Amino acid sequence: MTYLKSHLCSFSITNCRAFYKKFYKSIGFLFFFFSFSATSATENQIQLIQQAAEEYILATIEWPSGGTLEATAASIDSRIFATDCPTSLTSSSSSINPNASNITVLVECSEENWHVYVPVRLTRTGPQVVLVTPLSRGQIISAQDVTINMVDLQRFRRQGFSTIDAVIGAKTKKNLHSGDIIEARDICVVCRNETVTIKAVNSGMTITTKGIALTDGSHGEHIRVKNSKSNRIIEGRVTGISEVTVVF
């Protein structure tokens, strides 16, 4: 090496400078490579980070009633800086929207002063009422017409029904096909211009009378009805098939 440097430097000053420039650049690259390798995350560290992010989602996000919730952490670049954390990793997120498809989770080790942002994909499934036979507009839904299927709630974001009892006796507002998920807008639990039962509730006492629905309504919706005896128009909440409850 000494001979080579002397030979090049004796040849010209330009060659001498070029040699040292390449020599120190090579040394710098080696230092960078070994330093980078020493601080890059191991496969086990990456798995622990992903696991921490997934467990945070499963523990924080509300599970769909009667359904399932899956959390899948995205791949993490192994070139990130991470070390073995002497204590448990901590996780947090600025967003915990249960309807989101993806949530970013911050996983950190405060003792070792490092953190990683991990995108986590959510998959939510839940029971929904589905037709097994086609129905025409105006038909009454019976128990033989429907079943319960588990549905990807990330794709189905409209208001459906999770129990069969919620749709039995309801009337269809349009033609429906076999395999369709029944939506609230597809049926009327209480239908306009039809006779309904009005339940007036006050301090534990219930009075029942008949009335006429002035609008369509689904479970939980507030609609206007006319008392058939007094002709008084009141507002009540749909609580069942052809049933409206008014609380005084």
Automatic annotation (TrEMBL):
Job description of the protein: Involved in the assembly process of the P-ring formation. It may associate with FlgF on the rod constituting a structure essential for the P-ring assembly or may act as a modulator protein for the P-ring assembly.
Domain SAF: 126-188
Homology family: Belongs to the FlgA family.
Pfam families per UniProt: ChapFlgA, ChapFlgA_N
Localization of this protein: Periplasm
Lineage, opening ranks: Bacteria, Pseudomonadati, Pseudomonadota, Gammaproteobacteria, Vibrionales
A single cellular component GO annotation: periplasmic space
Domain of life: Bacteria
Signal sequence segment: 1-40
InterPro entries noted in UniProt: Flagellar_FlgA, FlgA_N, SAF, SAF_FlgA
Protein name as catalogued: Flagella basal body P-ring formation protein FlgA
Keyword terms of this UniProt record: Bacterial flagellum biogenesis, Cell projection, Cilium, Flagellum, Periplasm, Signal
UniProt GO BP: bacterial-type flagellum assembly
